[in-house]
Amino acid sequence: MHTRTHKTGTKRLRLKELAAHLDLSITTVSRALAGYSDVSEETRRRVREAADAFGYVPNQVGRMLVSGRSNFVGMLLPIHPHELVDPYLADFLAGLAGGLTQRGRDLFLATVPAGQDDLAVLQRVVESRRADAVVLYRLTCEDPRVAFLIERGVPFVAHGRTLAGTDAYSWLDTDGEGAFHDLGRRLIALGHRRFAMLAPTKDFTYAFLRRRGFERALAEAGLPQPDVLTVPLGDAAAMARAAAQLINRDPRPTAIVGLKDQLALAVLDEARREGISVPQALTVVGFDDTPVAAYADPPLTTFSQNIAEGAAMIAAMVVERLEKGEAGIAGHLVEPRFVPRASHGPAPAGAT
């Protein structure tokens, strides 16, 4: 085997020299650095360690010209002024970026400023060929981005599903419908009969399915459907107003369900401002198990879907879709875990 000593300040090592040092072909080293699964994990590890030791940095422009790939995976990132930072999104991005990096890819974020159409931004990303594949974040019930990418033949993985068929694309989703059906039955068993719900204004599929699961549980028990208010996610003032409206209904609901943690946390904040004891006078439940949920006052009962782990799984699905083509298309439905904390309990005495 050839040996070579790296010295700081010397001319940067070329791919050919790195391959010679490892006694591997240039093609094998290049594919190992790109994270291709047809190169063994042991070889990929050897190549990465040698590249790090010698300070080798791949020439991305040259690699793209030769392979026709950028090794970037794109994702749209909507930007709305004055909105609260979504802790779910932060965990999701960390898991996705980390999973892609482990597989020799990088995450490319295309921002969608307020007032711009995300489909138009997605079209620019596709036409510029800046990304080899796309991750679609939070699908709506009839998301036009799905049809666009399928028509263009662009590999992608969806975080969520549309209500139409899902056979033509890869997706990962959480069974929110099943979780909220179980939640409805759980709260009914605790004596609750008056329910309200805080939901996002936008027609996200996850919101539709979670609401449908909860409403099905109430219908099966012969109970009235929940009083539902919708609100723009991230708009703190709007969420506080909606929470106050629900809390001050006459008669007051005994349980308010937020379809996301940030909505449930807005209800907790408003209940505390109005001196309403949770869970003695009001049960509040969310979904996501974002980090702040455990530190709320009281700690929020919610559902965990292992945000970062799910995003890392999406990263693996993207790479598989790229490497296997249409044979790599797969769908995964993940079971969330109920996280009972201190914000839920039996219905107040005398509540009917």
Question: Which properties best describe this structure?
Answer:
352 residues; alpha/beta; 434 Repressor (Amino-terminal Domain); Rossmann fold; 3 domains; 6-stranded parallel β-sheet; 4-stranded parallel β-sheet; 12 helices; 16% strand; elongated; disordered N terminus
User: Mean pLDDT across all residues, rounded?
Assistant: 90
CATH fold naming of the largest domain: Rossmann fold
CATH superfamily of the largest domain: Response regulator
N-to-C SSE series?
Answer: HHHHEHEHEHEEHEHEHEHEEHEE
Could you describe the largest sheet, including whether it forms a barrel?
6 strands, parallel
InterPro entries: HTH_LacI, LacI/GalR-like_sensor, Lambda_DNA-bd_dom_sf, Peripla_BP_I
Keywords: DNA-binding, Transcription, Transcription regulation
Organism: Chelatococcus caeni
Protein name: LacI family transcriptional regulator
Summarize the structure.
This protein is α/β, with parallel strands linked by helices and 352 residues long. It has twelve helices and twelve strands.
SSE arrangement:
Layout: H1 15-22, H2 26-33, H3 41-54, H4 60-67, E1 72-79, H5 87-102, E2 106-113, H6 118-128, E3 133-137, H7 144-152, E4 156-159, E5 170-174, H8 176-189, E6 195-200, H9 205-220, E7 227-231, H10 236-247, E8 255-258, H11 261-273, E9 283-285, E10 302-304, H12 307-324, E11 331-334, E12 337-339
Parallel strand pairs: 1-2, 1-3, 3-4, 4-5, 5-11, 6-7, 6-8, 8-9
Antiparallel strand pairs: 10-12
Helix pairs in contact: 1-2, 2-3, 5-12, 8-9, 10-11
